[in-house]
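Checked the freezer inventory, then went back to the computational side. Two predictions to log before the end of the day. The first one is the construct we discussed on Monday; recording sequence and tokens without edits.
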Amino acid sequence: MRKSSLLVALFLVALVAIACGSSSESETTAIAKITPSETIFSLTDLTDVGFKKGKTFDVEGLTGATDAYLGYWGIDPYDRKDYEARFYPSHADAVEFGVVFADERTGPDAVIKSGEPMWEEGAKEARACTRSAGGDSSNCRISKYGDYVIYGNMILVCQGRDSATALEQCAALLEQLVPELVTG
């Protein structure tokens, strides 16, 4: 009896050690918020990796941008996240002109109330409505986008309740676009 208890205990310890030491395939590589690259991306690059375009935004007022889209992507097609993809002629333009607009659209201090953003396009779609416990009204002044990344000429504004979650979503999509980001 004592011998079987010892075997069960050893088995459980081994199982826990294996589980704690294993890594998940869904883990994403940490990514820099701004990555200089000469790569020039377009919507086609995103759609080639499964990105679904939901809406084309008018870029008038989005200084320097050539195109902007609302779309959806996820490794699991039943758990897609929202993204805004904004394209500029170059990485330098994306950084110089795009940061102020991306900062405004993301995070807890996002400016998405009608009439307030510098660029109105997509502000309505950026809203995440929350209801407090026991409350009878919704607060739709919270951005669904926790953060963004700039890679080459593209700014990806990514869904996430906070910066860390959003950057994980950005990294997961970028890993599909730029396989060399995955460290092996």
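The second is the one RB wanted added to the comparison set:
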Amino acid sequence: MSVLSILDMEDSSMTDTIQTPADTAAEEATEAVQAEEFLHLDPAAIIIGTNVRTDLRPDHKEFRKSIKERGVLEAVTVYRDEDGQYVLLRGQRRTVTAAEVGTPTGLIPARVVHQPSDADRIGDQMVENIHRAGMRESEIVAGVEQLALLGVSAAQIAKRTSIDRPTVNAALAVTKADQSRNRLDSGDLTLEEAAIFAEFSVISTRRSGDVPRVGTAA
């Protein structure tokens, strides 16, 4: 066999094994789809994972009636934990209500996905709730605070949750002023009012000398 023939064979072998970024992305997308499952689960057996929504509006009679008579029409989203149990990611209100009032089959549809990072979980839950039944402003503040504590910037919080940047900034301001936050939680102030109140509180505290200004010695 000639040297030229050997080189041609090596080139052909290398061409066959080269994988482009597009190929990699396509394979990852295929694997993600294949990893998902759709099951019907007992809602009472699903573990209610951490959720930024705290107000489930359990007194919504029409919603409870619909679940009892027709079941859960849109699949909830869960993941399997290390013990093989299903933990809820999205669909808390549907799952809790179904467990309380029952469904025609006793089961609810569930989409099983890989366990997400905390930042992805919080962001997805906020997007789902904000654009559906409207989260309370105190819940928005709590969600923004959780993302900030995970090191997510204000700009990224706005991008992840589709909340406008002024609202994100207002929520972050309220997280730094306990009195403002308490009044927001109790309904005395709107988020915008609480943010203004929080800013005045910070300015007042600095003037009193309790908190050093940026750039000055403590």
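For RB: Strands lie at 37-41, 76-80, 86-90, 108-113. Residues 66 and 190 are 32 Å apart (CA to CA). Let me know if you want it refolded.
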